[in-house]
Amino acid sequence: MSDLAKTLGSVMCVVGARPNYMKMAPLIRALRGDPAAPRTTLVHTGQHYDVAMNDRLFADLKLGAPDVNLDVGSGTHAQQTAEIMRRFEPVIDAASPSCVVVVGDVNSTLACSLVAVKKGVPIVHVEAGLRSFDRTMPEEINRLLTDQICDVLYTTERSAADNLRREGIRMERVHFVGNVMIDSLRVSLPHAVPPRAVLASNGLSTALVGEGSRFGLVTLHRPSNVDEQGSLAEALAILGDVSRELPLVWPMHPRTRANIERFGLWRLIDAKRLIALPPQGYLETLGLIKDATLVITDSGGIQEETTALGVPCLTMRENTERPVTVDEGTNVLVGRKRPLVRRCVEEILAGGGKRGRVPELWDGHASERIANHLTSWLARRVESVYA
Ligand code: UD1
Questions:
Q1: How far is the CA of 79 from the centre of ligand 1 (A)?
Q2: Contacts of 275 by beta carbon, 8 Å cutoff, 6+ apart
Q3: Using CA positions, which residue lies closest to atom 2 of ligand 1?
Q4: Exposed site from 123, 152, 207, 281, fewest CB < 10 Å?
Q5: Which fold has domain 193-351?
Q6: Does the fold of domain 193-351 match that of domain 3-178+362-386?
Q7: 80 CA: nearest ligand 1 atom
Q8: Would you write out the chain's pLDDT as a tens digit for each of its 387 residues?
Q9: Domain locations in the chain?
Q10: Are 320 and 157 a contacting pair, CB within 8 Å?
């Protein structure tokens, strides 16, 4: 580490839930690989804790063990957010970092930002400015509030700066750097696990995805799709329709599985055509996305990964905070509109569907751009203190 790097102190990187890990891993790698860059520490809030939701992804992404784990676990939004804040405060007090880096839009992102801002520690937000304009989504509240209180905002697509400008954020704080998730995708794609191996390791027949046979991939976990019996039954009816045309593989989020059980909806699932798996690792998920004929999802990250890989994506939401995936990529917003889904699936199976193109700066180098910018930003701050 250079003398300059030493004067920059340490950057405290925070992760909490599954979609954070693939965003933070390449950034930490870029910072640790650059001798001029400041030291990093990794704090995990423990919002996600199951082996399947957590440890496997850490291993797949070669994200070393966190320096600190706050072990907060589950709870209501208020409990979870409050508990993260309570446990993060002494950590930041003890470490006095030069800045805190948060990613994405989960409860951990907002909770740690709130603690940092009140301690006068600068906050850096990676994946800033995305807006669904749907304030019933907990993630939208987390995005809006985090961006208001952070000092440096790195964006993944150009629409984000327009959103931030409208919200009164000073544009000199905003930097379009591209998409760190695509950095992870590029690095990991050669190691993606083939779908046949994913099925086999779950004790299932590999015939489903044998040579030439097609399948679709499903992921659903948003409260708007899975928390109410009616909405979840509607989603399952749509998946039932599609599965009659194309077998579907569904790594199930624990929240979704629990609700299917609670509402007694397993009877709507034909297990031979709609194959439920436990949550999968990152390399398994990439393998499934890459080889799928189509993906049906409500995940933010998978909308981006399908666009980067050119795989048709039907998003079971009315809106998206990632409009570039619709404007330029392979994404179509289908909500829970049964006839629309049927039409889109028919078109894709007939060889049609959106081809799309890879958006600007989704080139696998976003983390390096962030590491360079962050290092010089911190150096300017240090200079101004000693000036
Ligand atoms: C969180 C994020 C969401 C992200 C998603 C990806 C918020 C508001 N939401 O939603 O943006 O897309 O992660 O997964 O932060 N659970 C387990 N095991 C775990 C983690 C959770 O069983 O390892 C259960 C919990 O008991 C809880 C449910 O899953 O009932 C939801 O977990 P939670 O962290 O509250 O939110 P997610 O729905 O995962």
A1: 13
A2: 199, 204, 208, 247, 248, 249, 250
A3: 106
A4: 207
A5: Rossmann fold (3.40.50)
A6: yes
A7: 35
A8: 677 777 889 999 999 999 999 999 999 999 999 999 999 999 999 999 999 899 999 999 999 999 999 999 999 999 999 999 999 999 999 999 999 999 999 999 999 999 999 999 999 999 999 999 999 999 999 999 999 999 999 999 999 999 999 999 999 999 999 999 999 999 999 999 999 999 999 998 887 776 678 999 999 999 999 999 999 999 999 999 999 999 999 999 999 999 999 999 999 999 999 999 999 999 999 999 999 999 999 999 999 999 999 999 999 999 999 999 999 999 999 999 999 999 999 999 999 889 899 999 999 999 999 999 999 999 999 888 776
A9: 3-178+362-386, 193-351
A10: no
Closest atom of ligand 1 to CA, residue 54: 23
For ligand 1, pick from 14, 15, 21, 47 the residue to mutate: most ligand atoms within 8 Å of CB.
47
Residue list, ligand 1 pocket, CB within 6 Å: 17-19, 47-50, 53-54, 74, 105-107, 138-139, 221, 253-255
The residue contributing the CA closest to ligand 1 atom 3 is: 106
Dist CA 127 CA 102 (whole Å): 9
188 Rama class: left (phi>0) / alpha (psi -120 to 50) / beta: alpha
Its CATH architecture, for the domain 3-178+362-386, is 3-Layer(aba) Sandwich (3.40)
Catalytic residue among 221, 253, 365, 373: 221
Residue 221 a catalytic site member: yes
**Closest approach atom of ligand 1 to CA 52:** 23
